[in-house]
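User: Study the shape:
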Amino acid sequence: MLTVDFSRFPLAPGDRVLDLGCGGGRHAFECYKRGAQVVALDRNGEEIREVAKWFAAMKEAGEAPAGATATAMEGDALNLPFPDASFDVVIISEVMEHIPDDKGVLAEMVRVLKPGGRIAVTVPRYGPEKVCWALSDAYHEVEGGHIRIYKAHELLARMREAGLRPYGSHHAHALHSPYWWLKCAFGVDNDKALPVRAYHKLLVWDIMKKPLATRVAERALNPVMGKSFVAYATKPHLPAVAAGSAGAAGADAP
């Protein structure tokens, strides 16, 4: 289940991609299939080992084109182990709401992104997330849980402050909002409640079968109750004058 819409976020074969806070690796796998040179990074070593196994299985099955590469590694989002301007594309999906220093994470992403590169940021949407918080303290008051709820304009403002230039946004996963409302209402850890089990079965069926009726329904509902807010941005190139000045300064340096 992808949150980033690759029709709005173009990816070319050979692009160097960082999936930051990759979790189970869903976006990293899609980028690998599209011929990218992917680095999937997460602080959770167990998930990284699982992602590495899936990368190996995909390679063995011939699911990635020639030239595509994939690496899974542990790392800290606030201290990325990469030089400046290392990546053409950075994806961070459903991660920033967990991190106290979200400005620091944005600064690191901008640092490792090449000028002209693209970034996709996804976070829980304000309205559906607010309902979850109202229904259940256990939903967010856990170690590593959500520590903030972003309004769309707040996230876009943070991205601009970090030096990015947003160019598009949308909402995704409307059908998942009621599922989480049910989870919060019946108990976040209570998977046996009949409404929760029934709705989960519906979601699994939808993900596996992709029927036209639910696809149309979700597209119609996304602007109203989409679970995720997705923002796309670019890192501007240095102005020609500034770039020239920087080069001259370097040439004059002892």
Observations:
- The mean pLDDT is 93.
- The chain is about 45% helix and 20% strand.
